Amino acid sequence: MKVSLYIAVGGFALLAGCQTFDQHELPEANAQPVAIEQSAPPFYLAAEPESAEITDIWERIRQGMQLPVPDQKLVNQYRDWYIKNPKHLEIISERATPYMYLIVEELEKRHLPIEIALLPIIESAFDPSATSPNAASGLWQMTQPTAKYFGLEMNRWYDGRRDVPASTIAALDLLEYLYEKTNNNWLYALAAYNTGESRVLNAIKRNEKKGLDTDFWSLDLPKETERYVPRLLALAEVIKNADEYGISLAPIDNSPSIEVVDISNQIDLSMAASLANMTTRELQELNPSYKHKATSPLGPHTLVLPIDKSEEFKKALAETENDIRVNWLRYTIKPGDSIGKIAQQHHTSVAAIRTANGMKNNTIVAGKHLVIPVSANDKQLYAQSTAQSLPKKVKSTASSKLTHQVQPGDTLWEIAQRYKVSVKQLQAWNRLDSHAKLTLGQKLAVLAPQTPASPPAGLTVSYKVKSGDTLARIAGKFNVSVAELLEWNSLKSSQLIQPGQILKLVVDDSKLNA
Fold first, then answer.
1. Long-range contact set of residues 239-247: C-beta below 8 Å, sequence gap at least 24
2. Of 366, 370, 365, the residue nearest 354 (C-alpha)
3. Residues designated catalytic
4. Which end of the chain has fewer beta carbons closer than 10 Å to its terminal beta carbon, N or C?
5. In a 3-state reduction of DSSP, which class is residue 295?
6. CA-to-CA distance for 240 and 251, rounded, in angstroms?
7. pLDDT of residue 322 exceeding 80
8. In whole angstroms, how large is the CA radius of gyration of the chain?
9. For 59-85, how does the pLDDT look when each residue is reduced to its tens digit (9 = 90+)?
10. Is the pLDDT of residue 319 over 70?
11. Global confidence as pTM
């Protein structure tokens, strides 16, 4: 992943990432390392540094450092640059705050050099959304083929390279692989992370044939790689002696700051943010892996949340019905449509549409309908024709969305038979996996087969009640009647609504008030 990623920081530009996996072949399981005479020890940590009394993660990193920093020209040049530009590390240390503890924990668990925690400073300036001109992406700047090989998912909804917890696992797996293939030498492995193991191994072989030294400093490598390893070593030296060099690093608590929360199925990001008492932007900054305004319908079903918000979110999520986490769009197939075109138009995948509609292949028929999962607050939906939206009245008719409450003895198969749908459709509509167990009283969404007569159409949205809201005020805002609000939410006219309560509305976008 050859990267020329320049980031302006405090009025100056700095090369912020430099990995080259576009020219790096995928790892081969049977690749044999060359025989290399070690000129330096392999640098595995012998033991974890004691951290019981350490309160700042930077001190934990300093105490764990083991890679020798040689007196080399490039190392000294980069060290001097960092010292002369202290603002750079001050800003980046703030960006690292949510993630550094997680990275250090994973490194120590694997007994890897703690200096690897500093690689994202070089690769992406600790920006999970960073993308290079050659399509490397994420905190660790991985290309799609390499990321896929090491287990990261990537689809129309989700890019695992931008998922910090997931990409950290993949990047460290890659580094361990490179360490093994380069005869357990960390300088070789780091160089290979930048340029690929074949280039490093071939450079070693060339020196062997010429009778030259085979240590990293003697190898003929691409200029970028020759500078990559010295930059990391210089960075480690500066951070180890930050006080001496006048570098102010943002303190990072030596404790978890984020948590990966299992959400079980797809959810609109603005609703998730509301449940966590966060702004949508705050949530998106921690979850840049999601490309749209909802999590992926096909998974992974996880969210990264601040540790102090996670319990509140999990409790609120448990009280939120699956059928209001995202909305369903009823799409009328037009002549000339293909399932791929429809998937692209609605920012989803062919597989998601097929799963939601119980389709065995990609065959569609003009005039028929498809059910498509969409984000509850996606403004693009308001551009859709109301004729292609869900039925306006949510009634128990043959052409509407139904809610089935699980009764004693119910099974998915029996419920599917009752409503003349398939078990796979029930699982897709309710985000249930094949091992999911039904619970008494659980509510399941059922999209019953359509009848020839088509009722008035509208777009189903979710609304979180705010302080001071009344049913009349909400009805006026969305240009619906109070009676409809009561009907859609199974409320009585005497029933009070509470701030934080989620209401379902079926709105006509052409009649919305400004």
1. 239/58, 239/61, 239/62, 239/89, 239/118, 240/62, 240/65, 242/58, 242/89, 245/82, 245/83, 245/86, 246/83, 246/86, 247/82, 247/83, 247/86, 247/89, 247/90
2. 370
3. 123
4. C
5. coil
6. 14
7. no
8. 28
9. 999 999 999 999 999 999 999 999 999
10. yes
11. 0.65
